[in-house]
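Please review this one.

:::
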Amino acid sequence: MRLLLSLSHKPLGLVGGCVVALWLACAVFAPWLSPHDPLKSFVPLLTPLSSSPQDGFFLLGTDLLGRDILSRLVYGARSVVVWAGLATATAYILGISTGLAAGFYRGPIDRVLSFGANVILSFPILVLYLVVITRFGASGLNIILAVTFASSPAIFRIVRALTLDLRGRDFVEASVTQGENTLRIMLVDILPNARGPLIVDACLRLGYTAITIGVLGFLGLGLPPSTPDWGGMVNEGRGLALAFPHLIVFPCIAISSLMLGLSLLSDALREGGRGPMASHGLDETATLPSAPV
């Protein structure tokens, strides 16, 4: 709550929050906000602000199959928000679990988990996505698998660093001395005090995951072709982009605006998120990387 209240004093953070809220609203209320069926074909390649006597008005025009671009953008927000959110959440569950264990227990557990994370991080992240998707096929569940496999090691390193710092704090040592359950110490004493940098990183990572879904869609390795997908829209329209630039301009604006909104929101949270751990003398942003790996 304290981090959210800090946004009221940061105009750029409010702008970012409004942009993110706009796309969330599109995702939730897509059936009511969409002017047309995103899969229905009308007159192909209508330019923006065009109309058809039989089908009505098309604010952003139609694609090469005659589908309304605005409707596909609105429904595409649902695909991006759902799959990017699920993929990021799954990566965080795995990264937080392993990071807490490594930072708290240290020793052999830390060495084994850190070695595994370093091995995965040594490969280019896009290559990892391509390997997983091409091996298991293009689907929403495989996108979650790919993002979890590629992103959780970076989250692991952040959580591990925070846990190592908090593990030596007096309030944690007191809980250990009192014989508190280890799982309770990690989830009640350590994790809540590490939430600041994790919230900031989650905003950035969610944006990068959205871009990843767009890139995979552009490469034909994202969601099934019938699913409205911003990256897939760019891929479908790139062959006619010079003659009909609206085919790729609007999907690119959608991807960029979501990423910009999340970046502005994360910057505002980073600047206003130094308070929750102040009572324990820990700077929340000290171990946070400038961008997700």
In short: The chain has one domain: 2-280. The radius of gyration is 22 Å.
